[in-house]
Amino acid sequence: MIHYKIFRNFAPNMNYTLNCNGKLLELKTPQVMGILNATPDSFYAGSRMQTEQEIAERTHQILDEGASIIDVGACSTRPDSEPATEAEEMERLRFALAIVRREAPEAIVSIDTYRPDVARMTVEEFGADIINDVAGPVNVQCSTFNVQRDMFRMVSRLGVPYIYMSRKATMKEVMIDCAEVVDTLRSMGQKDIILDPGFGFGKTVEQNYACMQELERMQMLHLPVLVGISRKSMIYRLLGTTPEESLNGTTMLNTISLQKGADILRVHDVKQAVEVVKMWTAMKALRNNCDDVAAYKTRNR
């Protein structure tokens, strides 16, 4: 049974606005976060950007296709991968972020990292706007992972929005985990918090779909929800295909995620995700208009 008393510190307003270094990002309409991987070993080969030209072109592509956030990562978290050292991650990020900031100085940039010192470097040296942490609650058996509370303290000190991803296996566990983490972050003074149920992390294929089926329950936490299912194994393993063949499945699950309350879609394929958001938003507006008309007729009988 969920202990509801741990939900006491959540914001009551679902029309959330993130303060990204003074740039306000409204989530009244769902936003798209485009992935820029400055790595040689990300699970989806099409997302690997390593040369100056590739990073510059990807930066413009993400923004031109309609994303509002660029998510830059430099350390692969795919299963069975050998994580880059902290020094390697910093070197890759310095190279990539210098290009991103040169090409799009006003863009909202998120950093995909689990290391507090990497988060600090990107915010202090490049003005990174959001920290996207995929470390999760479990202390992964790898010496390069930092203690989770160190990241909590770091982002609270830096004052940037923080994305917390849960590695728990069931939606009930995800909810309790997120509630407890938010309680801790609030006690440290953290303001903007986004929650990620962690599709593809700590879950079997069946558990991923069970969490998707119950995704709307995360609305109880009254905080923005990010969904990152782009080309993940929960799609291509179910279909018996590959990451390269998983765009259609990704689009389908992104649509379901919006219906269940997702505020941010983290994707490789920005154009398709932006189109999904536009179509879903139009359908929602029509539905709301019909509901308003029905309510008006009921009141004025």
Strand percentage lies at: 5-15%
Per DSSP E runs of 2 or more residues, the count of β-strands stands at 10
Overall body shape: globular
How many helices does DSSP assign? 9
Overall pLDDT metric: 87
Percentage of residues assigned to helices: 40-55%
Low confidence ranges: 1-13, 136-146
What is the ordering of alpha helices and beta strands?
EEEHEHEHEHEHEHEHHEH
User: Taking Cα atoms only, what radius of gyration do you get, to the nearest Å?
Assistant: 19 Å
Biggest pleated-sheet summary = 8 strands, parallel
Provide the structure class.
Answer: alpha/beta
Sheet with the most strands: spatial strand order: 8-7-6-5-4-3-10-9
Whole-Å distance between the termini?
A: 43 Å
Which key features would you list for this structure?
alpha/beta, disordered N terminus, eight-stranded parallel beta sheet, two-stranded antiparallel ribbon, 301 residues, single chain, globular
Short description:
The chain is of the alpha/beta class.
Q: Describe it for me?
A:
This protein has 301 residues and is of the alpha/beta class. 43% of the residues lie in helices and 14% in strands. The chain has helices at 52-64, 86-103, 116-126, 148-158, 171-187, 205-213, 233-239, 247-259, 270-299; strands at 17-20, 23-26, 31-37, 69-73, 108-112, 130-133, 162-165, 193-196, 226-227, 264-267. The strands form two sheets. The chain has an eight-stranded parallel sheet with strand order 8-7-6-5-4-3-10-9. Helix 1 packs across helix 2 (86-103), helix 2 runs parallel beside helix 3 (116-126) and helix 8 packs parallel to helix 9. It is globular, with a radius of gyration of 19 Å. The model is unreliable at 1-13 and 136-146 (pLDDT under 50).
